[in-house]
């Protein structure tokens, strides 16, 4: 990889590890210092809603303004908000929620800009870079809660904020030495006009529209696993906290394994087959869970089944995410990337709060029936995708 790619990787790794450790600490402190889970639920909902609303705006800015300056400004906002948190936390506890939203917004803007610049920076190593990025992202997601859990036992959250200030400050140095020369079209159009232009470009691309439709459906259905695994693990199968922790980690391990495989053996110009494989794996995983819940399983058997199911669901995500990301990098025009990336992300996320609510209610009844029904819907989605998506359309 070239030196610019290495600079970008180092920036993201250093910045992400500090942010994710501190985000874990925030969630822990909210749950620990409030008597009800409603505050934590509101915190998560505000983060999702703020992402959905802000991403299209960030997409317009990414296509219109100097990307390097936006990253530096975002990092400065992060550092300032974290420094203010240190004296304010003891007197204004709910600033932790405000801070969580601020960090989520700025990290979202930075992630979007990185996505829009990947092809320009990584050049011929783009496929390997996308896979490697997914690999370290999965690794950090796995390690950050472990590191955060250990650190919280010994130091206060204010010191963790200071640690995050340090990682953000170090990471910003790599941006100063990184050249971002993606060509952008400067226009005097209003934000509304820019948004409509990006929306129009997205809706003219039939391949993207089909994938977004499939992603909406699959994301909605797979959230039944996200909601259900903790409930089934603890309430239905009576797993210990250690067993539950291992089950939760298996999801990230699955993602990491496939991402690492694609970073060593880059995938090129393949989109339909990996997506079919991913949806097929999800169907098998959900169907297995639905059938398993028909029987009165022991804790050990339940633990093994849940571990395998969560692992294969984790395997399925990079199978579709990495080829899809590569396709978007190759086929979306440079001056539309920011808007298209942000719009697709916002659209796919729109049903997340609804799906969490729906499955949270349904799983209070027949869990087996819920997952068998979800499995049938995933199978129907796979059949529709296979019949409607022609390989010749993707190649063009």
TrEMBL record:
Location of this chain's protein in the cell: Cell membrane
Give the domain of life: Bacteria
Membrane-crossing residues?
none
- SUPFAM superfamilies attached here? MFS general substrate transporter (SSF103473)
Gene Ontology molecular functions: transmembrane transporter activity
Q: Name one GO cellular component term.
A: plasma membrane
Question: Which UniProt keywords are present, listed alphabetically?
Answer: Cell membrane, Membrane, Transmembrane, Transmembrane helix, Transport
The record's annotation in PANTHER family points to:
MACROLIDE-EFFLUX PROTEIN, MAJOR FACILITATOR SUPERFAMILY (MFS) PROFILE DOMAIN-CONTAINING PROTEIN
| Listed name of the protein | MFS transporter
Q: Which organism is it from?
A: Staphylococcus piscifermentans
């Amino acid at each position: 990889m070239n030196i610019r790619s290495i600079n970008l990787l180092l920036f993201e790794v250093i910045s992400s590890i500090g942010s994710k450790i501190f985000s874990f600490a925030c969630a822990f402190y909210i749950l620990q210092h409030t008597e009800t889970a409603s505050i934590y639920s509101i915190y998560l909902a505000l983060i999702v809603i703020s992402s959905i609303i802000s991403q299209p705006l960030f997409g317009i800015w990414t296509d219109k303004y100097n990307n390097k300056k936006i990253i530096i400004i975002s990092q400065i906002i992060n550092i300032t908000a974290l420094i203010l948190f240190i004296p304010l936390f003891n007197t204004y506890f709910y600033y932790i929620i405000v801070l969580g939203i601020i960090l989520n917004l700025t990290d979202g803007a930075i992630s979007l800009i990185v996505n829009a610049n990947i092809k320009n920076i990584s050049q011929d190593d783009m496929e390997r870079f996308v896979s490697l990025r997914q690999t370290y992202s999965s690794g950090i997601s796995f390690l950050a809660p472990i590191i955060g859990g250990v650190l919280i036992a010994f130091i206060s959250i204010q010191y963790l904020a200071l640690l995050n200030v340090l990682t953000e400050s170090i990471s910003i140095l790599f941006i100063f030495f990184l050249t971002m020369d993606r060509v952008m079209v400067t226009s005097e159009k209003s934000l509304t006009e820019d948004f409509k232009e990006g929306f129009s470009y997205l809706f003219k691309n039939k391949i993207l529209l089909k994938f977004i439709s499939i992603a909406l459906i699959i994301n909605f259905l797979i959230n039944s696993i996200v909601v259900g695994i903790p409930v089934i693990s603890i309430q239905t199968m009576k797993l210990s906290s250690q067993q539950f922790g291992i089950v939760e980690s298996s999801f990230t391990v699955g993602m990491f394994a496939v991402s690492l495989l694609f970073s060593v053996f880059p995938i090129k110009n393949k989109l339909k087959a990996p997506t079919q494989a991913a949806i097929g794996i999800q169907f098998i995983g959900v169907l297995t869970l639905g059938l398993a819940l028909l029987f009165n399983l022991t804790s050990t058997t339940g633990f093994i089944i849940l571990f395998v199911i969560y692992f294969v669901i984790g395997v399925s995500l990079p199978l579709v995410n990495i080829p899809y990301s590569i396709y978007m990098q190759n086929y979306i025009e440079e001056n539309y990337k920011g808007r298209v990336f942000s719009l697709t992300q916002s659209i796919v996320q729109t049903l997340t709060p609804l799906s969490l609510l729906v499955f949270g209610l349904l799983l209070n009844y027949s869990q087996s029936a819920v997952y068998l029904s979800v499995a049938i819907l995933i199978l129907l989605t796979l059949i529709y995708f296979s019949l409607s998506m022609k390989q010749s359309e993707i190649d063009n």
